[in-house]
Amino acid sequence: MPLLIFTSAFLIRIIVQYYMGCFISPETWEYEKAVNNFFAGRGLVFDIYGTTYNSLLTPLYPILCILTYALSGHSFFVMAVIASIISSLICVVIFFLGRDLFGAKVGFLAGVLTILHPGLVIYTSKFHPLVLDSLLFCVVIRMLIKTRKKPDCLNQLKLGLIFGLTMLSRSTILLFLPVSWLWLKRKSSSFFIIFIFTSIIVLTPWLVRNYIIHKKLLIVSSSANVFWRGNNPLATGTSLGPSGKPMLEEAGDIMSLIYGKTEIEQNRIFIDASLRFIKNNPSKFIKLTLKKLYYFWWFSPDSGSEYKKEWLVIYRAFYSLALLFAISGFFGFRNLEPPIRYDIAIVLLLMLTISLAQSLFYVEIRHRWAIEPLMLIFTAKGLVYAGEKIKEKFPRTRLI
């Protein structure tokens, strides 16, 4: 079954990548420019806002690109295949999680829904770390559940390794670190120091590198501009301003303050401006954060503005039904044994933690896609639960 799920997902993603032309001319982001700078001998840097940023990007995805290009002669085709493998592995991990939580039927259906997820399929064709982030989130959950059941040194090492790698890819997972530690501690006499220590060890080389460059401790990246975009007088909850232009284009005052200054100076200006806004407008900050949380789990006015309208229609229909059945799936939890309910809790806690962490910054539809595969487990449970209820009411009905 896992092989069938992986193969089906891989074929669909390869076909879409071919159709999108990413084997020859893929859509690239700032990560590709940073990687090109690395091969040009400048290091993993990115030029923006009139200066050179050494620590703007989290490093895991660029490092993956560097290794792939170095071994393949900068082949976009090979990079696309690796993206398809990563995206297909998400479907397999979701299958295992769904099976372990709710049984084989739910696991298979959750895997199929993940295979067909429009956002994950499309983003596999972009050279962007979203599918890598999603895979890491899913593996973190699987390792947490395995470590709780068997908290030996090996499982703690594996959990710490995957947690550390996830922090090097998506920094919003940092908020989940103490949550997961408390979740593990509640049901075990183990202290789980190996897990925490390993996570920090994995993160340390990047922290040391940043300190050597900046003579200042940076937690993962110097991305205070992302925090500012979601917390300023013009903030809408997305990366766009009130008129629909990018936030930095609308807020010209801060551009005049930052332009030409160093990375650390710009970072400090963005942080100070954001904190000043929050201090002077606490109620607006709370309302804005709640608004972003709503956008995270539903749609903002800007959702899908960069895509074809028919694509957004397809995804809206997919997500609306997925969310509806995920909510209905909760009605079937009452008959589950306490250990399973405890495992379900950590899945929900990660989804809640990531959505809250992202709501402190700004929200775009892709931010939800990183954890949406976990939601599809509950969607599958809701579909199976609905099917069982229909079968109880209409015993002769044959459901496929």
Description:
The structure is a single chain. The protein is mainly α. It has 2 domains: 2-129 and 218-390, no CATH class; 130-217, no CATH class. Helix content is 69%, strand content 2%. The chain contains 19 helices and 4 strands. It has helices at residues 2-20, 30-39, 60-72, 76-102, 104-115, 118-124, 130-149, 153-167, 176-186, 193-214, 224-229, 247-250, 252-258, 263-280, 282-297, 309-329, 338-359, 365-369, 372-393; strands spanning 27-28, 46-48, 51-53, 126-127. The strands form 2 sheets. It has a two-stranded parallel ribbon. Strands 2-3 form a two-stranded antiparallel ribbon. β2 and β3 (51-53) form a beta hairpin. It is globular and about 70 Å long.
Q: In total, how many domains does the architecture comprise?
A: 2
Beta-strand portion reads under 5%
Q: Round the mean pLDDT to the nearest integer and report it.
A: 91
Number of beta-strand segments:
4
Shape: globular
The helix/strand order is HEHEEHHHHEHHHHHHHHHHHHH
Largest sheet composition: 2 strands, parallel
Write the layout of secondary structure elements.
Layout: H1 2-20, E1 27-28, H2 30-39, E2 46-48, E3 51-53, H3 60-72, H4 76-102, H5 104-115, H6 118-124, E4 126-127, H7 130-149, H8 153-167, H9 176-186, H10 193-214, H11 224-229, H12 247-250, H13 252-258, H14 263-280, H15 282-297, H16 309-329, H17 338-359, H18 365-369, H19 372-393
Parallel strand pairs: 1-4
Antiparallel strand pairs: 2-3
